[in-house]
From TrEMBL:
SUPFAM superfamilies listed in its UniProt record: HSP20-like chaperones
Protein name (Swiss-Prot/TrEMBL): PIH1D1/2/3 CS-like domain-containing protein
UniProt record, GO biological process: axonemal dynein complex assembly; flagellated sperm motility
Species this protein is from: Channa striata
Record-linked Pfam families: PIH1_CS (PF18201)
Length: 189
């Protein structure tokens, strides 16, 4: 391998560095259309205050605005003063010995392999007969005398299949919903 001398390095640097004097002279001779690029397509950007305030609103950490959420607003009752109860969403999957010890079925702990969703709702000072429950494909609506819960579900479910059970000793409503998975027709190996 041959070593480059200092003069050779300077010559290489001069060759690779942009020559501004020649570029400016060349740009004067080139027509205005040849100097345009992709950023010049369309109307020029507006520089008024409306654009900057709209950008400031969109530059927050929110990934969507409230106006973009269209599903379930018919269940929202802003005049209802009842508080939302504490709840927990748990995903379930059926696991057998072939999964646990041998790993033969190809299941993993991800939510893709889950078959059901359990929603546990704490309802202190509530009777089972006072609870009204309505379940849609992507929305759970629970009403009680002291509480209300409008919950957008993280996965679509079979609204006709599922069960609800009220545990008086824990004062908790447990709703088990079967997940509607679009990839059920694909056999995972």
């Amino acid at each position: 391998m041959e070593c480059l001398s200092f003069q050779n390095l300077q010559a290489l640097s001069a060759l690779l560095s942009p020559q501004q004097d020649e570029d400016e002279e060349d740009n004067k001779n080139v027509s205005a259309y040849a100097q345009m690029g992709p950023g010049n397509i369309g109307p020029p950007p507006r520089q008024d205050k409306e654009v900057s305030t709209a950008y400031a609103k969109n530059s927050s950490n929110n990934i969507w605005s409230e106006e973009e959420v269209a599903e379930g607003p018919q269940y929202d009752d802003l005049a209802d003063p009842r508080p939302q109860p504490e709840y927990e969403i748990i995903l379930k999957q059926s696991v057998g010995t072939e999964d646990l010890f041998l790993g033969l079925s190809g299941k993993d702990p991800s939510s893709m392999c889950c078959e059901a969703m359990v929603v546990k709702i704490k309802l202190p000072d509530t009777k089972a007969t006072d609870v009204i429950l309505d379940v849609k494909e992507k929305f759970l609506d629970m009403r009680a005398p002291k509480y209300k819960l409008g919950l957008h579900l993280p996965h679509p479910i079979h609204s006709e299949e599922g069960k609800a059970q009220f545990f008086s000793e824990r004062e908790e409503l447990e709703v088990t919903l079967l997940l509607k998975r679009p990839i059920d027709c694909i056999v995972m190996q």
